[in-house]
Write a structure and sequence with these properties.
The protein has 407 residues and is α+β, with helices and mostly antiparallel strands. The protein has two domains: 169 residues, no CATH class; 140 residues, no CATH class. The chain has nine helices and 14 strands. The protein has a seven-stranded antiparallel sheet with strand order 2-6-7-1-5-4-3. The chain has a five-stranded mixed sheet with strand order 10-9-8-11-12. Strands 13-14 form a two-stranded antiparallel sheet. Strand 9 and strand 10 form a beta hairpin. Helix 1 crosses helix 3, helix 2 packs antiparallel against helix 3 and helix 4 packs antiparallel against helix 5. It is globular and about 80 Å long. The C terminus is likely disordered. One of its GO terms (molecular function) is metal ion binding. In the N-terminal section; belongs to the transposase 2 family. In the C-terminal section; belongs to the transposase 35 family. InterPro entries: Cas12f1-like_TNB, RNA-guided_DNA_endo/Transpos, Transposase, Transposase_put_HTH. Keywords: DNA recombination, DNA-binding, Metal-binding, Methyltransferase, Transferase, Transposition, Zinc.
């Protein structure tokens, strides 16, 4: 089977290379914004939007124009990739997978991508990589790049430049080493509770740095905007945000790796994080209730990184030959695993479950994980039966393939 994998490293450019990368990222941002403005103008005039081929023809005109001749200094392929990203953003909007594309701002996710592997040279022995119009760049070689290079993305974050090398390689069809199945109940007090009784305590990286971040933001607000002191204060705020994100990603990677290596099938709730963490402020006519408490809860939920955790579990289990099964979260914390009685009275406190029908008592998160595991077994059995009944069907790892099964 083909495995796509990205390897990310910190670059060590010299001054000239760093200035060039800033110019290239700015050129890609300019092309993206110019294309988006053109598409919006055509829409307002009632004209059909331009496709990727039409935008590339305009890009050639922009590069040859006297007003934007500086675009010719940047490599053409990254500029074309910016237009391809715009086309993908439009497609996601019309497919109702994302909001309408927004204009890019300087300093926010500055990046550019080289799609042609023939123009890229990788010298791992000397920890350097060759990129068009940048030459050889050194990078911090922390691990070996496996597979054939497909494309390279250069990005900037918190004043540092990084290179992400996407590769493709052939691997044997994985067979899971573990033989157990487990259900997971996500929470705030406990980040993840497993059906076997073990749990992972939350990291709460934002909460740990919240005081330092608040002081840094207050200091930044007192500076004159765009002054040198304001830029220094802004860099300090960015460093704290970067530290929070790095700590969260490290925790999620370690936790998802441990679970995917120790279990062949993982059942998880199909949580809609955007809906769960929606603001309770309401409107002027219908103001919300308990807004302050809900705001604190939303902050704690978003601090956990539930969506990223599920994404990492999905591909890591696939690499191990396992399965991730998503089940509806309704009544998983209200159903008794012994008698099956469903009632809100079964969970009178946040941490304790006590069935009013049979008297069964257990930690509420463990009960939720057990119910998730049982629902996952039933859903997986439906998927397998569908695959056996239809020669063209396959076993799915998501909730979409078993929409007709209701455990």
């Amino acid at each position: 089977m083909q495995r796509l994998q990205a390897f990310k490293y910190e670059l060590r450019p010299d001054g000239q290379q760093e200035r060039q990368m800033r110019r290239f990222a700015g050129s890609c941002r300019f092309v993206y914004n110019k294309g988006l403005a053109l598409q919006k103008e055509r829409y307002e005039r009632g004209e059909k939007k331009l496709g990727y081929a039409g935008l590339c023809k305009l890009l050639t005109e922009w590069r040859n124009s006297a007003e934007t001749a500086w675009l010719a200094d940047a490599p053409v392929h990254p500029l074309q990739q910016a237009l391809k990203d715009l086309e993908r953003a439009y497609s996601n909007f019309f497919a109702k997978r994302a909001d309408f594309p927004r204009f890019k701002k300087k300093g926010q996710r500055d990046s550019f991508r080289y799609p042609d592997p023939k123009q890229i040279k990788l010298d791992q022995g000397n920890s350097r990589i060759f990129l068009p119009k940048l030459g050889w760049l050194r990078y911090r070689n922390s691990r070996e790049v496996l597979g054939t290079v497909r494309n390279v993305t250069v990005s900037q974050s918190c004043g540092k430049w990084f290179v992400s090398i996407q590769t493709e390689r052939e691997v044997e069809q994985p067979v899971p080493q573990a033989t157990t199945a487990v259900g997971i109940d996500m929470g705030v007090i406990r980040f993840a509770t497993l059906s076997d009784g073990t749990f992972y305590a939350p990291l709460n990286s934002f909460k740990r740095h919240e005081t330092a971040l608040r002081k840094a933001q207050q200091a930044m607000s007192r500076k004159t905007k765009f002054s040198n002191n304001w830029k220094k204060a802004k860099a300090r705020v960015q460093r704290i945000h970067s530290r929070i994100g790095n700590a969260r990603r490290d925790f999620l990677h370690k936790t998802s790796t441990a679970i995917s290596q120790n279990h062949a099938m993982v059942c998880i709730e199909d949580l809609q994080v955007r809906n769960i963490s929606r603001s309770a402020a309401g409107t002027t006519e219908q103001p919300g209730r308990n807004v302050r408490a809900k705001s604190g809860l939303n902050k704690s939920i978003l601090d956990q990184g539930w969506f990223e955790f599920r994404r990492q579990l999905d591909y890591k289990l696939a690499w191990q030959g396992g399965w991730l099964v998503a089940v509806p979260p309704q009544n998983t914390s209200r159903s008794c695993p012994c008698c099956g009685h469903v009632s809100a009275d079964n969970r009178q406190t946040q941490a304790r479950f006590a069935c009013v029908e049979c008297g069964f008592e257990e930690n509420a998160d463990v009960v939720g994980a057990i119910n998730v595991l049982r629902a996952g077994h039933a859903r997986f059995a439906c998927e397998v039966s569908d695959a056996v009944g239809s020669p063209a069907a396959g076993t799915h790892r998501s909730d979409s393939g078993a929409a007709q099964c209701h455990p």
